[in-house]
Amino acid sequence: MPTDIRYAVLGAGNGGKSMAAHLALMGFAVTLYNRTPEVLDPIRKRGGIELESYEGGPRGFGRLARVTADIGEALQDADAIMVVVPSTAHGTLAEWMAPHLRDGQAVLLHPGRTGGCLEVAKVLRTAGCEADVLLAEAETLIYACRSDGPTQARIFRIKDSVPIAALPAARTADILEMTHSAFPQFIDGGTVLHTGLNNMGAIFHPALTLLNAGRIESTGGEFQFYIDGVTPSVARVLECLDRERVTVAAALGIRARTAIEWLHLAYNATGETLHEAIHNQSGYRGIKAPPTLKHRYIFEDIPASLVPIAAFGRRYGVSVEVIDSIIRLACVVEQTDYRRRGRTLDKMGVDGLSVSELNRYVQEGLTDDLESS
Known about the structure:
Layout: E1 7-10, H1 14-25, E2 30-33, H2 37-46, E3 48-53, E4 60-63, E5 66-68, H3 71-75, E6 80-83, H4 90-97, E7 106-109, H5 116-126, E8 134-138, E9 143-149, E10 152-158, E11 162-166, H6 172-179, E12 186-188, H7 192-197, H8 201-204, H9 206-211, H10 213-219, H11 232-251, H12 259-267, H13 274-279, H14 296-299, H15 301-315, H16 321-334, H17 338-341, H18 355-364, H19 368-371
Parallel strand pairs: 1-2, 1-6, 2-5, 3-10, 6-7, 7-8, 11-12
Antiparallel strand pairs: 3-4, 8-11, 9-10
Helix pairs in contact: 4-5, 11-15, 15-16
């Protein structure tokens, strides 16, 4: 396996630790970055991360080349920059990266949620970044994973296929080629509108968390999130959310996958209903619910997934009543205005674009409208 690509993994949460350890076990030189030094101290002292996994999956001690809380140091030697942080931090992280990026580097969001690349591209433009950077996003995180301790991570499953897309889409082949030796599971995802509107976290995370709020608060999340939490009635709400998402995508000229189709693509799980398909996904077994409602399934997936999907729906004439109801419920529960804090069309730099202009942008790059904004 060629291991000459140098990786920087930004983020030391569940996904970042799993990715950094996995890449290191494959023989790549890996730098791990996190903005909080205290999170990194145990990893730095030990020199890496211990990875546990499902039967046949990667496991062992992944020794890291560098562990740092300095963004400039993290990026200086990197060829591929893997951004594995909550998507609500994409804009801020893009500001921090802007002065340090150089020609030829790739920045890949894991995942972009909805509008990740669009937001990052606007922030880099506003910051005056002139580096020729290959910007791309994954449709979903490749791992189902958890952190088992300060220097430990556990992978429950690696997805069989993960669509990715570059902005513009004409460069997707380049990012696939760069990352193929590490992640042959990556496939061409079309455009960042496809990856953003095929965002399954928007369907599986916020509503499932809110509809199990009482159980989460009374048990501290001591139940199987996708098995015990997805009852037939909960699954019907998820199906309604899914139909609205697919309809929004259709308004943009995109044939989005349904949640059932995605489960088959990612995990080879099948079922006549969403409830059945979720329960047939063996990788979900053993994954506990969030221990609290103050969790990324709310504070990330509402503003960076449902809010932009709803914004696209309203802009292009699609009813998103169920999505709006989940957003509103989250605002009440968390006493937060997620619509104001979330990814608006303006924050994504596409406010006012027609459907054809938006598609031209994601396919080809900057339009005259964006150049002058």
